[in-house]
Amino acid sequence: MFILVTGASGQLGKSIKKLVKQQKTSDSFVFVTREHLDLSSFSNIKNFFETHKFDLIINCAAYTSVDKAESNKAEANMINHIAVKQIAEIAKNNNIKLIHISTDFVFDGSSLNPYFENDATSPLNTYGKTKLDGENAILSIMKFNAIIIRTSWLYSEYGNNFVATILKLSQNNSNLNVVSDQFGTPTYAGDLGQVILDIIKSDKFNILQKASKIYHFSNKGVCSWYDFANEIVSVSGANCSINPINTDGYPTSAKRPKYTGMSKEKISKEFDLKITFWKDSLKFCMLNLPLITPLNK
Ligand SMILES: NC(=O)c1ccc[n+]([C@@H]2O[C@H](COP(=O)([O-])OP(=O)(O)OC[C@H]3O[C@@H](n4cnc5c(N)ncnc54)[C@H](OP(=O)(O)O)[C@@H]3O)[C@@H](O)[C@H]2O)c1
C-alpha cells in the first residue's frame, strides 16, 4: 500500500513515523506537514491529491488547541471539518481508504459509565463540535472504507502535552494545583500509532468495501488530571506536591467534559488488541524522555 500520513510534525504523526522506522513493512509511507499539505487551503488540498496517489490516508492533522478554538472558530472548523470533508470526498472518488482520528470531546461528559461508539454525542466546546462535524462528514460521504478512531488525553515524547508540562513545572515548583474533578483516560501516542499499524495489517481492514465505522481507543483505566499529574511526578521523582482543585479553580475558555472514559471493547475485539494500562504506558514513555531518570528504572 501507498500510505499518506498527515500532521507529520504532530504527536501522533511523529509517533507513527518512529514506529514505521523501527518495524519492517512492505507498505510505503509518505509523511507530510502543513508545508506540503496545508489543510486550510481548498486549492492546496485539491492540487496535492491531483499530483499524488495513495491507497490509504491516515489523517493525524487537526486543529488541537482546545482553548484557542473558542476564539478561532473559523480556522478550527476549516481544519477539523471542512478539510476533512474535502479529504473524504477525494478518498471516496479515488477509492482511497481513510483512517481519521477524533476525540472524546464529542461527548458532554454527563455519563457515569464508559462511552460506547454509538452513544449520543453533545460536544461542550468548539474543538469538540468541529471534530464531530468532521466525523459526520466522513460517515455521510464514505459509506465504506473509512475508520474513525476517537482517542483521549494524548501524550508522547514529542511537543507540548500534559506530561511535558507537568515535568517542566514540577522541576521548578514545590506545589502544583491540578484539576481533580475531570476524569478520562491518558493515551500514549505510541500505543495509538501501533494500533493504527496493526489495523492496517489486519485482514479485517483489508477487505473490499468495508463499512465505515467509529472505534474508541485510549489506554486502559480511568483517572483524573490530578491522578495523572501525581503519577508523572512519582515516576520522575520530582520533589513537588500535587494539590487537587476543582474545575472552577482553573478557568479556561473552553468548557471540558467531566467524564470521558470510553469502552474499547469494539476495537479490541475486532482487531484482537491487548490494551495497556495507562500507568504502564506512561512509564514506558517517560523512559524514552531524555531528561528524566525514573525512580523505578
Ligand atoms: N492531543 C490530545 O490530547 C488529543 C485528544 C483527543 C484526540 N486527539 C486527536 O488526535 C489527533 C492527533 O493529535 P496530536 O496530539 O498528534 O495533535 P498535534 O500534536 O497538535 O498535531 C496536529 C498536527 O496537525 C497539523 N496541522 C494543524 N493545522 C494544519 C493545517 N492547516 N494544515 C496541515 N496540518 C495542520 C499540525 O501542524 P503544525 O505542527 O504545523 O502546527 C500538527 O502537526 C488529532 O486528530 C486530535 O484531534 C488529540
How would you describe what is shown here?
With 297 residues, the chain is an alpha/beta fold. Helices cover 39% and strands 16% of the residues. It has 10 helices and 12 strands. Helix 4 links the parallel strand 4 (97-103) and strand 5 (146-151). The chain binds NADP nicotinamide-adenine-dinucleotide phosphate. Residues 7, 9-13, 33-34, 37-40, 60-64, 79, 101, 103, 131, 151-154, 159 line the site of NADP nicotinamide-adenine-dinucleotide phosphate (NAP). The site of NADP nicotinamide-adenine-dinucleotide phosphate (NAP) has 26 residues, from helix 1 and strand 4.
Number of helices: 10
Bound ligand species: NADP nicotinamide-adenine-dinucleotide phosphate
> What would you report as the Rg, rounded to the nearest angstrom?
19 Å
The poorly predicted ranges are none
Mean pLDDT: 95
Q: Helix/strand/pairing class, anyone? A: alpha/beta
Q: SSE string, helix = H, strand = E?
A: EHEHEHEHEEHEEEHHEEHEHH
The best one-word shape is globular
Report the count of strand segments: 12
